[in-house]
């Protein structure tokens, strides 16, 4: 199982590392601000049966 995931911020281009928690379910969705530029992103995390995670992020539309 992965402990960390990452995404590239669409606003500032930084590679952002985020903690992953499979106990939250196989499919998760939440909003998190980029720690560099503070722009909000919708984070989607999906865990497969082997515990591998797929992380997707897109700017949150306001």
Question: What does this protein look like?
Answer:
This protein has 62 residues and is mostly beta strands. The chain has one domain. It has strands at residues 4-8, 15-19, 27-33, 40-47, 53-59. The strands form two sheets. Strands 3-4-5 form a three-stranded antiparallel sheet, with no helix packed on it. A hairpin with a 6-residue loop joins strand 1 and strand 2. The model has no long low-confidence stretch (mean pLDDT 92).
Features:
62 residues; mainly beta; 3-stranded antiparallel sheet; two-stranded antiparallel ribbon; 0% helix
Briefly characterize the structure.
By secondary structure, this protein is an all-beta fold. It has one domain (4-59). It has strands at residues 4-8, 15-19, 27-33, 40-47, 53-59.
Strand pairing plus helix content: what structural class? mainly beta
Give the SSE order as H and E letters.
EEEEE
Q: Considering DSSP H and I runs of 4 or more, what fraction of the residues is helical?
A: under 10%
Shape: elongated
**Average of pLDDT:** 92
Could you tell me the number of beta strands?
Answer: 5
What is the alpha-carbon Rg in Å? 12 Å
- The figure for the number of domains is 1
| Terminal Cα span | 33 Å
The low-confidence parts are: none
Q: Please state roughly what percent of the residues sit in beta strands, choosing from under 5%, 5-15%, 15-25%, 25-35%, 35-45% or over 45%.
A: over 45%
Biggest sheet, spatial arrangement of strands = 3-4-5
The largest β sheet comes out as:
3 strands, antiparallel
DSSP helical segment count: 0
């Amino acid at each position: 199982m992965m402990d960390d995931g990452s995404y590239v911020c669409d606003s500032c281009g930084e590679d952002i590392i985020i903690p992953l928690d499979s106990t939250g379910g196989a499919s998760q969705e939440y909003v998190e601000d980029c720690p560099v530029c503070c722009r909000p992103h919708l984070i989607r995390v999906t865990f497969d049966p082997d515990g591998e995670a797929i992380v997707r992020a897109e700017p949150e539309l306001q």
